[in-house]
Amino acid sequence: MARTAQGGTDARRERWKGHREARRAEFVEATIRAVAAHGPEVGMDEIAAAAGVSKPVLYRHFTDKSDLYLAVGQRGTELLMDRMVPALTRDGPIRARIRGIVDAYLAAVEENPNLYRFVVRRTSADRPVEQDAVREDEQLVTVALARLLGDGLRGFGLDAGGAEPWAHALVGLVQNAGDWWLDHRSMTRANLSDYLTTIIWHAVDGLLRSAGVELDPDAPLSADLTGEPARPRPVNDGEV
């Protein structure tokens, strides 16, 4: 009997835990809708209205604004990675792959501009002290990119020690350009993707050429940035 009672208690706890997690997820989606409708400075009253509940009900599931901010940021990271992972793992010519990665990020920003502003630009008072969804977001993309760059450099017999700082630099470049573009929109997303792709490709090309490797940017490559079309060869002095 004791074992049965304990089993029943555990089952109820699991059901209640699942219910709370489901409700939190519903409220996160409601917050995203409220952010889209009212902008990044949306208030808890507007979030509660979008969720169809009162503020006290919200606070039963989130300890404070920081807890809600973190949950929304984590959901934003999931939406971003849904875009980024296919781009990071796709085969094809290196220039096309660079453009795909850049455009995947910009597409996520363009589709959810207020969510981006809510997550990235909220005041420090609203951000969790111990966890920051923005930093987690950057780290996920940077680690994936560093692995990709490292595999590519090793595939060409080059030192991969700079893959990690290079990945951080590229993530910062695209993020800052995307942040500027979101406010100014002085060019199309396609144009910005093209500009950033050109900058990044010439950085890659310059590094490879300095090691005597010439790579056709439009030749197919495998998922680790290496492949049969890439043939290391000395580059003549003065060659462009």
Properties at a glance:
240 residues; mainly alpha; Arc Repressor Mutant, subunit A; Tetracycline Repressor, domain 2; 2 domains; two-stranded antiparallel ribbon; 2% strand; elongated
What does this structure look like?
This protein has 240 residues and is mainly α. It folds into two domains: 62 residues, Orthogonal Bundle (Arc Repressor Mutant, subunit A); 158 residues, Tetracycline Repressor, domain 2 (Orthogonal Bundle). 71% of the residues lie in helices and 2% in strands. It has a two-stranded antiparallel sheet. The chain is elongated. The C terminus is likely disordered.
Question: In summary, what is this structure?
Answer:
71% of the residues lie in helices and 2% in strands. With 240 residues, the protein is an all-alpha fold. The longest helix is centred in the N-terminal third of the chain and has 37 residues, at 2-38.
The whole-angstrom Rg is: 23 Å
- Strand count, sense and closure of the main sheet? 2 strands, antiparallel
What is the count of β-strands? 2
- Backbone structural class: mainly alpha
CATH topology of the largest domain: Tetracycline Repressor, domain 2
Tell me the distance between the termini. 82 Å
Proportion of residues in β-strands = under 5%
Low-pLDDT parts are: 228-240
In DSSP terms (H or I, runs of 4 or more residues), the helix count works out at: 9
Helix content: over 70%
Shape: elongated
* Number of separate domains: 2
